[in-house]
Design brief:
The structure is a homodimer.
Chain A lengths: L3 E8 L10 H16 L6 E5 L3 H5 L4 H8 L6 E6 L4 H14 L6 E7 L6 H8 L15 H16 L7 H11 L13 H6 L2 E3 L2 E2 L9 E9 L12 E10 L14 H14 L8 E3 L5 H10 L8 H6 L16 H5 L3 H17 L12 E8 L4 E9 L1
Parallel strand pairs in A: 2-3, 2-4, 9-10
Antiparallel strand pairs in A: 1-7, 1-8, 4-7, 5-6, 8-11, 10-11
Helix pairs in contact in A: 4-13
């Protein structure tokens, strides 16, 4: 397969965009990415989205957006892997260009989910879990994560406040990201006093949903030159791995084996190890997921993920900066779009465009996107090259 | 890209499978295909499905089925292109193997849609159309096709009975397909007296929905040998093309330009022309679509599709046999699965497994799968080689 570069990126602010349609939000990101790439057309469009049939009454989003973007007669398709849909679309676009089938591919992650009530959206999000064996028992998506967090705290002896640094770091970084939904810092006291959602997960352990879209333009690396002040960003690692869809079916529900597998393969493909990653956009849908992701990807020992936060290693300047643009927690989690926000943010870091939250000299970045409660996990490694 | 072969196929009967779950139906097809291929594992699974979030309350079908099939830690994803989802999954699997990323890929098309009321399913199917500009006006999916058919009859001077041969041929062939939903022949008189659905489309112009799944195992061609009595089936052409999602946005709503584009590219890739196709599994969701597909793919002049039926050219033994296993009309149309049924049926023809509806000496077959009212169209060419 031939090397692939990311030529352009685009994103909309994550927010409640009641004044804009699904079409307009996705279009904004596509046009921004094409503009950033300096291109007016593309050969194919891969759209990541989870909820549009349920929330927007719209299927066939590939063609829906290729039509809106003027890409008539081109290839277009939607890919879905619950909250991992964004990275799944990126991987589909990557394969299309890497294989030689397509010269210019656009990957779009898009979600417009605030048009419905919280109750409806909670029910829609539950479709990521096992309908027969999890949802049928009445457990919600946050409920599943709460069960995992409770067990983790019990097994490894952590108290709730030990998870605070993940959320505090995400919020602190989001202040400097104009595309973030929650641009406000939080304190430990706020974290501890926040309203309970599903014990032990409170409001500041959980990421907010939102409407948003992010996109990237992928082309063969050989067609891209580094520009003054803008390095060439290559996709050096990509892997997708799955686990059982139901949490209770796992031999060890406290280990993200799909994260381990996809990170392992991505490291191998990129020829790097965890210690060479300069920045890591991880999938902090809930604070417990930050800990589990860091452990599965080799940044912490089993059960020791929270220590990285407590020891200040996850901030910009630390050993492994995470959620440098706010993460799911504060940039926001428009579910099917999130994976593409992560990719766009890693590109921003490698280009040196992150202002106060720029990781000095970042040359290798990683993004990990999770569908379901650890069921589908995609890891991508990008590098200046 | 490297050449790819289809090593195994599997399918379930299209029917109202109230006694089986979504999981069981899809699993049946996967296991049948793996058994047919003589393999016990695979590297990746690509699932085509349209309605599971709406009808089954289940998303993330890639992982849902890889879990059920015991493909833990493997890659899995769902692709969706409305009724074109099956072929879109096949194309994703094809790209994965052709690119060298994957050695053994399974493509599954699956749909379980009869658990809900006809009213609910009609609303769910409408998500294939443009929610803002078509569905909002109250037009259903069959309504859109009825508008196209009415205009076509007016423009080219055909009467309703001229479309009868498409349905009569499909039903006659389905009699010999144990996997078909409607295994009964129909007469011209029945066709003319059938109950009206959306004028001019009556019940025998329209394909029945159903529950079903079909799957194929794809591997590098170099790893497959022809067996005694079972030729090697290669994928020689594959293309996907889109049109505007809304019918009213098209310059010419009576020409399937996405079918023309995807067929043109598939012919080019396969190095064949329309006159070399021995069998064509087309997307006869409604009889009008048979006519439009035949015209766009070069088998008939503009406006002359019905003539092929009236002149007996679409039957087995005719110039271009279509729907040899019953087509959508009589095999049934489990929407996200249909594209994979078509692929499986073309493989059966090339293997010579079709009994009374076998096309003698078939060596090159084509399958065309349509999402929406001509919005996303995928064409595949398979050949003995």
């Amino acid at each position: 397969m031939r090397p692939v570069a990311i030529l352009g990126i685009g994103q909309t602010q994550v927010d409640e965009h009641w004044e804009k349609s699904l079409r307009e939000i996705g279009g904004e990101a596509i046009f921004a990415a094409m503009n950033d790439a300096g291109l007016e057309k593309a050969d194919a469009l891969y759209v990541g989205n989870m909820l549009s049939p349920l929330v927007n009454g719209q299927n066939q989003l590939g063609t829906f957006f290729s039509d809106w973007a003027g890409l008539w007669h081109k290839e277009a398709v939607k890919v879905e892997a619950a909250c991992g849909s964004g990275a799944a679309a990126f991987r589909a676009a990557l394969m299309a260009v890497a294989s030689g089938e397509v010269e210019v591919a656009i990957a779009l992650g898009v979600e417009k989910m605030t048009d419905k009530s919280g109750r409806d959206v909670t029910a829609a999000l539950a479709t990521a879990a096992d309908a027969d064996y999890e949802v049928e028992q009445g457990v919600s998506f946050v409920g599943l994560n709460a069960l995992i967090m409770r067990r983790y705290m019990y097994e490894y002896g952590w108290k709730h406040a030990d998870f605070a640094p993940f959320s505090i770091n995400a919020h602190a970084n989001a202040v400097h990201n104009p595309y973030a939904r929650l641009r406000e810092s939080i304190t430990l006291e706020q974290f501890e006093k926040s309203a309970m959602v599903a014990t032990p997960i409170n409001l500041l352990d959980a990421s907010p949903i939102g409407d948003g879209a992010a996109a990237a333009v992928l082309v063969p690396a050989e067609k891209v030159n580094a520009l003054p002040g803008r390095p060439r960003v290559l996709v050096t690692g990509s892997a997708s791995a799955t686990d059982t869809i139901a949490v209770h079916s796992r031999r060890d529900p406290l280990f993200l084996s799909a994260a381990y597998q996809s990170a392992r393969r991505a490291y191998q493909m990129a020829g790097v190890g965890a210690d060479e990653i300069d920045v890591f956009e991880l999938h902090d849908a809930f604070s417990i997921m930050s800990a589990l992701s860091l452990e599965a990807c080799g940044f912490a020992e089993r059960g020791q993920g929270p220590r990285l936060g407590l020891e200040d290693q996850i901030r910009v300047g630390g050993r492994i900066p995470v959620c440098t643009r706010g993460g799911l927690k504060a940039r926001g989690h428009p579910v099917g779009a999130t994976g593409m926000y992560q990719i766009v943010e890693v590109v921003q870091q490698l280009r040196g465009e992150c202002g106060p939250t720029q990781v000095d000299g970042a040359r290798i970045g990683m993004a990990q996107n999770i569908g379901g409660s650890g069921a589908t996990i995609l890891t991508h490694i990008l590098a200046v090259g």
